[in-house]
């Protein structure tokens, strides 16, 4: 009889995190409002959740119905912020514990996944880093946003995917597993709707599990999309690109629709060709010539029919070259990691397709029917309840990006930012590795090349190092990549970046990039695991590994504790010290019952008493307000609603996206705070 070992590592981690969490949760109330939960975006959730719990519906201000949030986190926030009717700080104390619990749950799942693939010590190091990294805490958990539940949902999905990968070969039917994966996929999508790309790629991964399609098709989707986008960016200035962004997406979709079937037709998914470089090179060359020729004819016709503006034909040449190089690179890399294991996909293309298409169709309907069916139901409900299928906040950010100028920072304006490989700012999608390599690049002054190219060189060297480490044990490397979901994470991450930057979104934030962060931790875990695998049979290897875990845990845990202790203080604030100074200022200069407009207003809306805050930028307002904002009729709409004051930067309201549409209803008061002015807002146009 096997005796299950007591999970000492998990138990110790739970105790340590529980103690730290409770210490922070009982600290001074002002810490939560002034130091921990400080983002406006988080309070959009908090105030709407409070209103839902009190029976006012999905609204921030009590007037306008809104869907400007991700649904799963809102669902979690509702019971927590039902307590706000008793005490505004009590829900924040509970939320502090909840965020730490989500971080702990994510860390334990990472530990279990990586421990199954390698050894427990490697999983423990990954878990300790996730739990106690100050970078991860700041980016994922500290602000109280949906990122915490998104990270947990992603890793829970990967954990189930890991179990699926270890078991599907021994099962006659996997329908039940696909349904469970689909249900978890719904949770992933509802945690952040832009994770639809990750779930979609994961669906390809499980549906085509017996074929090399599972590796190559996701990579090809990314490569073909990247090729089209890079071709346009190399050819056009960013200002011109964003004028025709919708046309670019049509070209991208046309390219995908054409090239994927042709790649299959020319044998680029057959291992019998991939394993022989000369045969692969010949097939790839023919594919490139034929696909690029057909695409050129199609786009020349389509550009005339759809009246594309100044369609640059040189893009087709760039696209052919980039596609050839990158499709070849992915296949040479996969061939290099190949093992002697028999693998589906060696048969001629038509017999293989005929033998498998029914099962692929059945599995695809099962997984995608559950995962995307849940999304479809949500979108239909949103249309009925709010008048629009998707969150209004995302639509507004897309609109901002389409305007001239730099509205709320505007869309990406550099090549590194566009492709998410910048190492600074909100386009730093591969933090913390990208940040570290960027800082190294800036110090390499002896290399007389620009910072970005030094940084790109370091990225390439790191990727090459990762590949070399995988070659230590190719069979183990292949198992690790498959069981830890590296391909779905990698491809889903890139497609998410393309989604925001190709469409010209403005106002994207550093906390959007959660799959990228999970992937970085898993890849570093694989690198460490492969090195440990190479020496694990040596004397004292296991003891040395656990000694490293203890040292790393003490170091990371101590740093984490110091930050919590310094931030979540006791007896620092007077009992009557306001939680939100701006809210107190507005209360002092307005009457109870006043309706006040702010361009943000999340935290003020939550903490202010006996007054109502209207969100004027539209992120947590109604779809109707968004439509009026675009027509420059929002000023009258707010006047008719009975708004009494505006607290905002007047220069901001003069420019885009507002264009001065509120000014006719304003009366100057000469009351200012922190660069913002408080003005009267009247129901009629002022002389």
List keywords for this structure.
single chain; about 675 residues; mainly alpha
Strand-residue proportion: under 5%
Q: How far apart, in Å, are the first and last alpha carbons?
A: 89 Å
Total number of helices: 30
Please report the total strand number as a whole number: 5
Mean pLDDT across every amino acid position: 90
Structural class by sheet pairing and helices: mainly alpha
The rough form would be described as globular
User: Helicity level, as a percent range?
Assistant: 55-70%
Major sheet characteristics? 5 strands, mixed
Q: pLDDT under 50 segments (min length 5)? A: 340-345
The radius of gyration computed from the alpha-carbon positions, rounded to a whole number of angstroms, is: 27 Å
Which sequence of strands runs across the widest sheet? 2-1-3-5-4
Please describe the topology of this protein.
Elements: H1 8-25, H2 29-36, H3 40-53, H4 71-81, H5 90-117, H6 120-132, H7 134-141, H8 147-167, H9 175-191, H10 196-207, H11 213-235, H12 238-243, H13 245-265, H14 271-274, H15 277-305, H16 314-336, H17 349-386, H18 392-402, H19 415-418, H20 433-443, H21 451-470, H22 474-483, H23 486-502, H24 514-535, H25 541-567, H26 581-589, E1 595-598, H27 602-607, E2 612-615, H28 623-630, H29 634-641, E3 645-648, H30 650-654, E4 666-673, E5 676-681
Parallel strand pairs: 1-2, 1-3
Antiparallel strand pairs: 3-5, 4-5
Helix pairs in contact: 1-5, 3-4, 5-6, 5-8, 6-24, 6-25, 8-9, 9-10, 9-17, 10-11, 10-17, 10-23, 11-13, 11-16, 11-23, 13-15, 15-16, 20-21, 23-24
């Amino acid at each position: 009889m096997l005796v299950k070992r007591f999970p000492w590592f998990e138990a110790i981690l739970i105790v340590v995190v529980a103690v730290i969490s409770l210490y922070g949760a009982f600290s001074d109330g002002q810490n939560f409002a002034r130091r921990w939960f400080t983002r406006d975006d988080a309070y959009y959730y908090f105030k709407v959740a409070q209103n839902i719990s009190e029976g006012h519906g999905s609204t921030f201000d009590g007037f306008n119905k809104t869907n400007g949030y991700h649904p799963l986190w809102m669902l979690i926030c509702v019971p927590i912020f039902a307590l706000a009717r008793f005490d505004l700080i009590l829900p924040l104390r509970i939320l502090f514990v909840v965020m730490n619990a989500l971080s702990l749950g994510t860390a334990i799942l990472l530990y279990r996944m990586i421990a199954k693939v390698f050894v427990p010590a490697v999983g423990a190091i990954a878990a300790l880093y996730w739990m106690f990294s100050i970078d991860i805490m700041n980016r994922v958990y500290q602000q109280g946003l949906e990122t915490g539940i998104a990270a947990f949902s992603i890793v829970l999905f990967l954990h189930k995917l890991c179990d699926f990968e270890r078991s599907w070969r021994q099962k006659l039917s996997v329908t039940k597993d696909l349904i469970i994966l689909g249900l978890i996929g719904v949770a992933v999508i509802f945690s952040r709707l832009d994770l639809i790309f990750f779930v979609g790629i994961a669906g390809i991964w499980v549906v085509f599990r017996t074929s090399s399609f599972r590796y190559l098709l996701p990579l090809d989707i990314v490569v073909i999309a990247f090729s089209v986008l890079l071709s346009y960016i190399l050819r056009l200035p960013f200002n011109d690109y964003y004028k025709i962004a919708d046309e670019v997406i049509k070209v991208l979709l046309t390219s995908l629709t054409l090239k994927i079937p042709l790649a299959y037709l020319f044998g680029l998914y057959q291992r019998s060709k991939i394993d022989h470089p000369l045969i692969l090179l010949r097939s790839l060359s023919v594919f490139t010539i034929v696909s690029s020729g057909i695409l050129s004819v199609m786009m020349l016709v389509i550009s005339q029919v759809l009246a594309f503006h100044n369609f640059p034909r040189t893009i087709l040449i760039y696209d052919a070259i980039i596609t050839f190089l990158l499709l070849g690179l992915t296949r040479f890399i996969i061939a290099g990691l190949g093992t002697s294991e028999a693998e589906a996909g060696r048969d001629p293309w038509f017999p293989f397709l005929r033998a498998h298409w029914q099962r692929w169709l059945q599995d695809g309907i099962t997984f995608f029917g559950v995962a995307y069916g849940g999304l479809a139901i949500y979108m239909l409900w949103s249309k009925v309840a709010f008048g629009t299928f998707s969150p209004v906040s995302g639509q507004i950010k897309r609109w901002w990006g389409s305007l001239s100028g730099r509205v709320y920072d505007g869309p990406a304006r550099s090549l590194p930012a566009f492709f998410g490989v910048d190492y600074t700012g909100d386009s730093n999608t591969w933090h913390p590795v990208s940040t570290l390599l960027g800082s190294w690049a800036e110090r390499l002054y002896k290399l007389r090349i620009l910072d970005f190219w030094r940084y790109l060189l370091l990225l390439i060297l790191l990727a090459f190092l990762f590949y070399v480490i995988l070659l230590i044990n190719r069979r183990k490397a292949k198992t690790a990549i498959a069981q830890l979901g590296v391909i779905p994470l990698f491809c889903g991450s890139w497609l998410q970046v393309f989604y925001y930057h190709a469409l010209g979104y403005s106002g994207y934030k550093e906390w959007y990039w959660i799959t990228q962060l999970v992937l970085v931790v898993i890849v570093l875990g694989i690198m460490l695991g492969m090195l440990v695998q190479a020496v694990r049979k040596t004397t004292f290897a296991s003891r040395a590994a656990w000694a490293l875990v203890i040292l790393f845990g003490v170091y990371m845990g101590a740093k984490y504790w110091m930050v919590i202790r310094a931030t979540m203080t006791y007896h620092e604030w007077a009992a009557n010290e306001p939680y939100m100074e701006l809210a107190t200022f507005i209360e002092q200069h307005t009457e109870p019952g006043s309706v006040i407009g702010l361009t943000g207003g999340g935290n003020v809306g939550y903490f202010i008493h006996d007054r109502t805050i209207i969100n004027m930028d539209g992120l947590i307002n109604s779809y109707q307000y968004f439509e009026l904002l675009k027509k420059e009729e929002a000023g009258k709409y707010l006047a008719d609603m009975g708004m009494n004051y505006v607290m905002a930067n007047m220069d901001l309201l003069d420019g885009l996206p507002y264009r001065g549409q509120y000014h006719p209803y304003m009366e100057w008061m000469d009351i200012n705070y922190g660069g913002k002015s408080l003005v009267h807002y009247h129901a009629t146009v002022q002389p």
